[in-house]
Amino acid sequence: ATPTAVMVGTGVGASQGVLIKGGQALESAQKVNCIVFDKTGTLTVGKPVVVSTKLLKSMVLRDFYELVAATEANSEHPLAKAIVEYAKKFREDEENPIWPEAQDFVSITGHGVKAIVRNKEIIVGNKSLMLDIKISVPLDAEEMLTETEAMAQTGILVSIDGELTGVLAISDPLKPGAYEAISILKSMDVKSIMVTGDNWGTARSIANEVGIETVIAEAKPDEKAEKASGYTVAMVGDGINDSPALVAADVGMAIGAGTDIAIEAADIVLMKSNLEDVITAIDLSRKTFSRIR
Ligand code: ADP
Ligand code: MG
């Protein structure tokens, strides 16, 4: 392709909300035959909401959520925001709630959070976090987790003073058009993989809904960066924890609504935050670099 063709290509991209940072990025996109998608905020809308709560101990829901929200108010995680948002509904000061003070707040990346609130030790996170710190997960909690995961929701456990007290189910639906985008990629002979820090059960359910067969769940950020060998790989992500993978991939594509760090790390930015534009980018590259016969 001539420099002019590359300029035209990036210009057309920009006019369609696909920001291509230079000729190299545009050229690499045509060779992509495998795409690794982050789950939360990339395949899903990324605005999770609490859809149900199960208490395993006798406790007033308002008091339970006050302790949980006081802890999660210190976390930037989308799940934390969903929990705090939901907890507001139980309060009189709903508009501007003042949560009790949380001391010794700790965030355990990819697992959850803990803090001391009203002299109680509150731990909020996934099952592996509870097992790591030797909090036993009773059978009814296990059962609720399994049901939650089968419905493509994320189950979050709450422990108060070392006792498992509640299970929250959190839903984050697929983006409109996600299924269609994955099936078009299939028809273009591009393999799709989903990678997430979320648990295997939820990950598999979401992958089934969107039509992705290959799943990597319970992944740490550095594991997200591991390359599928023998493929030219594009990574599509939105989070801070996706940025190492966006850099490591042959082509990094950031969701426009994502974090600044992901946008900086990427070669291509999908300003409309939809998945159809992954195809727009590949098409544009193929058209720019295919020889005119
Ligand atoms: P993702 O790939 O979806 O961004 P993360 O690595 O950020 O996943 O988190 C993985 C899992 O760790 C979440 O699905 C959740 O179970 C748990 N987790 C992380 N942060 C929190 C939090 N602040 N509160 C509760 N659970 C959390
Ligand atoms: Mg994400």
Can you give a write-up of this model?
With 293 residues, this protein is α/β, with parallel strands linked by helices. It is 40% helix and 24% strand. The chain contains 13 helices and 13 strands. The strands form 2 sheets. Strands 1-13-12-11-2-9-10 form a 7-stranded mixed sheet. A hairpin with a 3-residue loop joins strand 4 (102-108) and strand 5. Helix 1 (3-15) runs antiparallel to helix 13 (276-289), helix 2 (23-29) crosses helix 13 (276-289) and helix 4 runs antiparallel to helix 5. Magnesium ion (MG) is lined by residues 38, 40-42, 237-239, 242.
Outline the fold blueprint.
Elements: H1 3-15, E1 18-20, H2 23-29, E2 34-38, H3 39-43, E3 49-55, H4 61-72, H5 78-87, E4 102-108, E5 112-117, E6 120-125, H6 127-132, H7 139-150, E7 154-160, E8 163-171, H8 178-187, E9 191-195, H9 200-210, E10 214-216, H10 221-224, E11 233-237, H11 243-248, E12 251-255, H12 260-265, E13 268-270, H13 276-289
Parallel strand pairs: 2-9, 2-11, 9-10, 11-12, 12-13
Antiparallel strand pairs: 1-13, 3-8, 4-5, 5-6, 6-7, 7-8
Helix pairs in contact: 1-13, 2-13, 4-5, 7-9
The site of adenosine-5'-diphosphate has 21 residues, from helix 3, helix 5, strand 5, strand 6 and strand 7.
